[in-house]
Amino acid sequence: MNQRVHFAASKTEDAQAALALMRERYGETPIDEAEVIVALGGDGFMLQTLHRHHARALPVYGMKLGSVGFLMNQYRPDELADRVARAVPTMLRPLVMDVQTESGSSVTALAFNEVSLLRQTKQAAHVRVSLNGATKLEELVCDGILVSTPAGSTAYNLSAHGPILPLGTNVLAMTPISPFRPRRWRGAILPATTEVKFEILDPYKRPVSATADSYEVRDIVEVTVRESCERTVSLLFDPEHNLEDRILNEQFEI
């Protein structure tokens, strides 16, 4: 291969078999010397790969060997060098989640899909919502609320009846999860430059957790969410499997 490729695979039987085949057929470059990562698995494994290697700023080319493959290309073991060379890059910018907990600790994490808040007990969460320092909802009573990137808008956000966001629109989706009050509020589409702050009202009686993709922080009192200005990741897609087209087509699925 012309490119120096490092392979990564989920632990499923199919992905591990594909990993062995790829290494035998194409060889492999150590991650410290690689130019591109080829990820074998589903969307969950793609997120793990992005989190594990985002500091290296390497483009990632995924092939679907899992149950969900929205961020993956079709798995075909042949002509890998040509496919990677022809792939179209899509730049993703993650969210930064800054959390303050009841114990006084501070936690920062990245999210490529979404930042979500969820109640920890049977008690509904009571959340104050502010945008760029201005309070927009004094008290949202709900099971939770999330902020999604365009790439993540077809994941948890869509399951919560949030909007699908085309890539390149520089917007984020804010979507409540089972909102009780205000009854008619169903979320908002925000400029990507918006800084969102969630304040937990009565956190001791109504504890809430915050999750950046799969990284959870429990017993929170305040969360701020903003788009990262420093970090980006590049996903590579076959020309016939463009992520923007997939997001567009998803809006017409019934």
Automatic annotation (TrEMBL):
UniProt keyword annotations, A-Z: ATP-binding, Cytoplasm, Kinase, NAD, NADP, Nucleotide-binding, Transferase
GO annotation (BP), single: NAD+ metabolic process
Active site as annotated: D43
Family designation: Belongs to the NAD kinase family.
Role played: Involved in the regulation of the intracellular balance of NAD and NADP, and is a key enzyme in the biosynthesis of NADP. Catalyzes specifically the phosphorylation on 2'-hydroxyl of the adenosine moiety of NAD to yield NADP.
PANTHER family referenced in this protein's UniProt entry, alphabetically: NAD KINASE
Listed name of the protein: NAD kinase
